[in-house]
Each structure stands twice: as structure tokens, then as C-alpha cells.
Amino acid sequence: MDRRVTFNNKLLPYLLLAPQLAVTLVFFFWPAGQAIQMSVMEQDAFGLSKTFVGLANFKELFADAEYLKTFWRTLIFSGAVAFCALVPALLFAVMAERIVRGATFYRTVLVLPYAIAPAVAGVLWLFMFNPSVGIVAYWLKKMGIDWNPKLDGNDAMILVVMAAAWKQISYNFLFFLAGLQSIPKALLEAASIDGAGEWRKFRTIVFPLLSPTTFFLLVVNIVYAFFDTFGIIDAVTSGGPAKATEVLVYKVYYDGVVALNLGTSSAQSVILMAIVILLTAIQFRYVEKKVHY
Amino acid sequence: MNAQTLGGRTQWLPHAVLLIGVFITAFPLYITFVASTLQPQDIAQLPMQMYPGSHFLDNYSTAFSKGSAGTYLSPPAMTLLLNSLIVALVVTFGKIAVSLISAYAVVFFRFPGRMIFFWMIFITLMLPVEVRILPTYQVVTDLKLINSYAGLTLPLIASATATLLFRQFFMTIPDELVEAAKIDGAGPLRFFKDVVVPLSRTNIAALFVILFIYGWNQYLWPLLITTSNSLDVIVVAIKKMIGTGAEPTDWHIVMSTTILALIPPVLVIIAMQKSFVKGLTDTEK
What we know:
The complex is a heterodimer. Chain A is 74% helix and 2% strand. Chain A has a two-stranded antiparallel ribbon. Chain A has a single domain, classed as MetI-like fold, CATH 1.10.3720. Chain A is mostly helical. Chain A is globular and about 75 Å long. Chain A is built from 12 helices and 2 strands. Chain B is an all-alpha fold. In chain B, helix 14 (234-241) runs antiparallel to helix 15. At the A-B interface, helix 1, helix 3, helix 4, helix 5 and helix 6 of A face helix 1, helix 2, helix 5, helix 6 and helix 7 of B.
């Protein structure tokens, strides 16, 4: 990983690194350190003094039924988003790989949601499913379905999952397409000669060869659902109704910024950091496999 | 597999499935566009009509130069778009510039602490804003950067992904080029400017697409850091325009502002599709 030929200069490399390091230290390491420090402190009601309380904030969190519920809710939300974003994306990619004409058109349209901000995607879906003006909400009512994401927690969850998955299909579609294009055509031709049908070829050749891509995307989608869906949830439900769509990141924000409970919010931040580190480690381990199956 | 075996009668299925995909993708956008051309009473009419109305110009000019009149007195979309553009461009070019030079330092020099610095940058991958919301906010307050463009952009400028990408690319620059430059008496800065940057053009373009979208679509950070409406970015403003119930929402203005908000990143992705795909796949390695 090292170059053989380099420049000799004592000061210059440090100057070149300085801007990045300054931003990193001030806005990443310092706050992260503060979060860890604050997570073991308790602040009095007036914010005047802090006392060291050890792991009390963490113990309190894990003893809190509400927090554990949020944990489960986040897992269900992430699983649902990953599933709803991966399955259609795979289907579309397999179909796009087969067509001769119109491929550019389909690809251009299907990647558009990637460019749209999570909060804006949330507004699009909120509008369609708004019980008083939304067109889809109207159709649902016509079909006799009682739909109200403002009052019903399950409806609200379904709505944020749909908006979040809609945005992520683009990304998955492009990666599946790249994965499909790297499968040797000779393999598929050989299977055709042996009389294998489309479904059989998909099940026995395509899907197994795609599994590294699928696994990589699964991790990416879970990271996305955990951390990048804040805007969607804030725009569509603000975590409601009655916390039915409050996921971990939203709770950190709410407890810290809205309820101003610094100790538990920091402890939650520390737990989230541990989750990111775990997910990033998994992601990097499997990147190797993704490149050469 | 050749086109003939799949041609003819089996071709309808892929097209049918892909058209469903196009429908799912485009329908929310289409409905939003239709609503942005209607009057408030037409939007409230159930079911809302499915074809554009005649108030396109009215709505867009109101949104652009006046804004929404709800509980949140939004600045006109003109101001919001400008704020978003400033944030997106400063973040994009800031990230690219800062990452280019730090990757250059790590790859083309040998100096004490090199690997430590590299790992410090790498570790920031694991500290997204979402997980260090409060303390970062605290730091920005201490530095008196609340309600400023600097506060909006500076904390977002460090980039582990861009640094990793440039580092990987720089490793592939042949040693002969460096030797030739040295023989010609070119120093490291000259080599950077005349060889490294021009060679990195496609990588810079790929990163530009990804980072512009990232910058334009920022939500949580601007929401925290600005308390004055005049500094709101458009994505945050749209959410604030939607009433919480007490006050009716100006849906026609919200919808036209939404369309205005999604045009710039959508144009970038369409105009630079090749770079976009390259950027997406490269930054994930």
C-alpha cells in the first residue's frame, strides 16, 4: 500500500492534512468525547453542576421499557425497509438486464428517488396518504379500508416504511444491475442448453452468484434505515402517533434537543456509535467478498 | 444470452414489470406536480383531479417570491433555494478540496504520524452527525457559529469517503510520472497542480454528483443549527410549512416549493448519470 517514490518535505504534508484534521478534531472527536463523557454524568435540574454517575445512565436506559420498545421498533422498521427496498429492486434489475430496448429510459426514471431528500420524499408520501386531501387515502377509503396514519400507529409505520423504501430502491437497483452484469453469460447459456427455464436459472445460478451483492446491500440498507431516515420520519409523523414511529435516532434527537435530557441522550448516542462501528466493521469485512466472489 | 432467444413474445413481461417500477417511482412526483398547479379549493376537492390545472404560474411565482402564509412565515423559495445552493456547493467543493490535499499528503509523502492521521480520518466514517447530535451542537454554539453559513457547512466538510477514494486512485499513479517530475525539477505542489488534479478529473466529477446531492439534501443539521428563518434551507422549510393541525396547510404552495426543491439534485443526477453511477459504486469500496 505504500508508494516507492515520494517527495521529501518536512512541513508540507502536515499543512496539507491540517484542514481535514482540524475539522475532524473539532467537529468529530471533541463531540464524540463529550458524548462519552456526558453519558457517565448526571446534570442537575438547573444545568449548574454535573456529577459522575458511572454507568447509571446506561442502566437506566436498559431498564426503561420505553427504550427497549424503541430498540425493537427500530429493528422492525429497518428490517421492513430493507425487505421492501431490496425485493422490488432485485426484480427490476433482473428485468432490466433482459430487455433490449428502453433500458436507458427505465434506468433514468428508477434512479430519480436517490436524488430526492429524505424529508422531501416524506412530504410526497405524506401528501398522497393524507386522510383529508390525499388521493391514495381517498382510494383506500373507497375500498373500505380505514386509514389514518395520524391516529393509527400501524398505518403511520407502514407509511414511513413505504417512503423510506421508495427512496432506497434506486440505490439497490443500480448495485443489483452491476452485479447481474458481472455474471458470466456462458454459465447461463450452458444452463439454457441443458434445458433450464428462466426461474430455475435464477434460483440456481443468478441468485447464488448475487449473494455477496445482496448481503452487502442488506447491511447498507440497515445502516440507511437506522441513520438516514430521520428526515422522512420527522416530516411524515414526527415520531408519532404516541411514539409509534420513534426509532433510535429520533429518540436521541427528541430526548436531547426537545426534552433536554442530556445524560440519557448522550448514553443513547454512545450506544448508537457502538452500533455504527459494528455495522461498518461488517460492511468492510464483506467488501472483499463483494469484489471477487 | 442473445437478444433473439429473448425477443418477441417473452419481451412483454420485463417491460410490464419495469413499467410498474416506473409507475411507483413517478406517481408520487406526478401527484405533487399536479397539486402544484391547482388552487387550494381544487386540492381539497376529493378526489383531487389527476391532470394539471391552470395555476402553474400563479403558484410558482407566489412560492418563489412570497412563500407560504401559514403559521411558519417562510421566506420566499428564492431565498431558500439560494441558501440550499450555498450549503450544497460549499460542502461539495469543501469536501473535495480538503480530501484531495489530505489524500495527497498521505500517499506522496513519508512523515512521522502518517498512519495515525490516516486512521483518524478513517474513523470519522463511524461518527455520522445523527449519533453525535447534541455535543456537536454544543461545540458549534461554543464557537459562536449558530445561525451562520459557516456553522451550516464547516462541520460537514470532513470526508473520510472522499479521502479514501482519492487515496486509492493516487496509489495507481505510476511512479515513473513522479520520477519524471522530479527530474524536471517540479516540486510537490507543482506536481499536484499539473499532474494529480488533472488526472483526478473523472473522480472529482463522480464525487461532485454524490456530494452535491448529499449537501443539498441535508436536513437534521440545518434544522438544529438555524433558529432564524432567513437561513433555512429549502428542505427544512418545506417541513415547517406543513401545519400541525391548528392552521390549514397551504398545500398548493408547499407542493410547488417541493417541486422547486427537487429540481436541482434531479437535474444533476440526470445530466451526470455516468459520473453518478461511478461515484456511487466507487464510494462504497
